[in-house]
Amino acid sequence: MRIQGNYVCMSVSFFLGVGATLLLVLFYQQTPSHVFFLKAENTENVTHEEVMFQDLAPLLKRAATWDKTVIITSVNWVFAQPDSLLDIFLQSFRNGEKIDYLLNHLIIVAFDARAFERCKLVHTYCFEKKAENVNFDGAEWFMSPGYNNLVWEKIRIQQYILEQGYNFVFTDVDVMWFRNPLKHITVYADLTLSCDGFNGNPDDVDNYPNTGLFYVKSSNKTAEMMQYWHEARRRFSTDMDQNIFNKIKHELVDSLGIKIQFVDTKYFSGFCNYNEDMDEVFTMHSNCCVGLEKKVSDLRNILDDWKNYTSLPIGERKKGLVTWRVPGRCIH
Asked: What tens digit of pLDDT does each residue of 73-85 get?
């Protein structure tokens, strides 16, 4: 009887063990791959930043190129809603010169829930960054307090990306991509960016920057640069990020050793100073334009002009007979 009793106990223990194992397997199979579990003994060491960006980390890994570079843009609901800036932005990649593959490396940061849901309908890599105590789902006027808060949230994200060891190209969603701008990124520069006015010397720090399109190479000093830029907001509280960057750019060079290079406006073009030669333009930014409806209208024209240009035989393109329409609603 003792042997039989031991046998029964062993059998019950065995089946309980098997059952527990099966339950664990089923649990993990039903758990979404994007959910992460933190070990209880380590939770006290998890920072607020790590919790805030925990869903961004896996996106960076999936979207990065072989050299750990990602493309980043950001939207709120009014930019992401149908027929608004996001749709035009994505279409420019698909109509560009063999650059649609770059969408595989694009992460769209959504600053509100509706923008996040819309992003997931039109793109693969979407990250919802819930801003603390700020509502970003409305149309924010240029230089308004809401607009400035939106901009500074982007800089916090950019710093995190650099700290994780990834290079990035940041692009405003109102920048049309027609050719691969990475061809104008140099190896030696820590920061390469567009400008509103180019003086002919790409290494001259006195070029006026445009932070709507820029590349940053990951390093300790570039992560420190983003933090320095963010903290400079305290000194220039009423200014926008681009103006503040212009005021501190010499400090970044002298104090942190940042190497800056600017790209000629004939390549990274914009409404402020746009190049009529469509053979040379890589990107087109609707800068010097205030108002969402105006931007959408003129960027649609720009996209249509590009389609007309690329439909021509190469020989016809070279004649220079086709160019951009004047961005009439933005300029007038």
From this structure: 999 999 999 999 9
